[in-house]
Amino acid sequence: MAALIVTVHLLVVLAHGKAHLLLHIQANAWQSTFIAVVIVIGPVLALALLWMRLRGIGFVLLSITMAGSLVFGVAYHFVVPGSDNALELHSGYWESLFRTTAIWLAVIEAGAIAWCGWALKSDV
Questions:
Q1: Which pTM does this prediction carry?
Q2: Using CA atoms, how far apart are residues 124 and 42, in angstroms rounded to an integer?
Q3: Cα–Cα distance, 101 to 9 (Å, whole number)
Q4: Are the CB atoms for 71 and 44 separated by under 8 Å?
Q5: Which residue from 84, 82, 42, 91 is spatially nearest to 64, judged by alpha carbons?
């Protein structure tokens, strides 16, 4: 399940990143670092830890990175005004992809947090 979550999350992140690029919505330096470390590398590292049988650490890291991703994404895509706010974009193909992937990221991240909590509690 962790592999599915991380893979789907990464694919949606890539699609969202492509929409960012084509819509010329750029992140500043600290946001780019956060995206690279927490949103992209963190879940992959967590998955590697799970495969290495470091389950507790892997689930905790996956939970933390998904929670960080969720807070960051909801804040910048739905709360903070600006070019990164999915609710402020005009209609169009890339704008629709941007909006759809922003929503899917929030759903995936919230689901991942819930699943990690269950897995930690159940000692899966």
A1: 0.91
A2: 21
A3: 10
A4: no
A5: 42
Which tokens hold the place of 82?
């600006």
Structure tokens at 84: 């990164």
Could you report the per-residue pLDDT of 33-68, keeping only the tens digit for each?
999 999 999 999 999 999 998 888 999 999 999 999
| Structure-block tokens of residue 119 | 């897995």
**Nearest alpha-carbon partner for 12 in 124, 99, 119:** 99
Q: Could you tell me if 115 and 22 are in contact, meaning their C-beta atoms sit under 8 angstroms apart?
A: no
Query: How many helices and strands in the chain, by DSSP H and E?
Result: 5, 0
Place of tokens 């000692």: 123
Q: What is the DSSP string of 68-93?
A: HHHHHHHIIIIIS-STT-GGG--SSH
> Going by C-beta distance under 8 Å and a sequence separation of 6 or more, which residues neighbour residue 30?
none
Q: Which of 16, 17, 107, 120 is nearest to 63 (CA)?
A: 120
Which pair of tokens denotes residue 45?
Answer: 């590292």
* Tally of CA atoms within 13 A in the half-sphere of 3 that contains its CB: 4
